[in-house]
Amino acid sequence: MIDLATSSSAVQAGALVGAVLLEAFVLYVGYGALERVATPVVERIKHA
Amino acid sequence: MEPFGIALTTLVLFVSFGFMVGVLFGFFGMGGSFLVTPALLVMGYPARVAVGSGMAFVFGTAVIATLKHHDLGQVDYKLGGLMIVGTSVGIEVGRIGVFYLEDLGLASGVIGITYVVLLGAIGVFVTRNALKNDGSSGSGGGHHDAADDEIDPDAIPDIAKKIQSYRVPPMMTIAGGIQVSLWMVLGVAFATGLLSGFLGVGGGFIRMPAMFYLIGVPVPVAVGTDLFEIVFSGGIGSFLYGMEGGVDLSIVAPLLAGSALGARIGSAATSIVNEDDIKIYFGLMLLGGSIAVAFQQAGDYFAIEIFNTVGFALILLSAFMVSGAVIYSTVTEMRAQANASVPSAD
Question: Average pLDDT for residues A17-37, to the nearest whole number?
Answer without folding.
Answer: 89
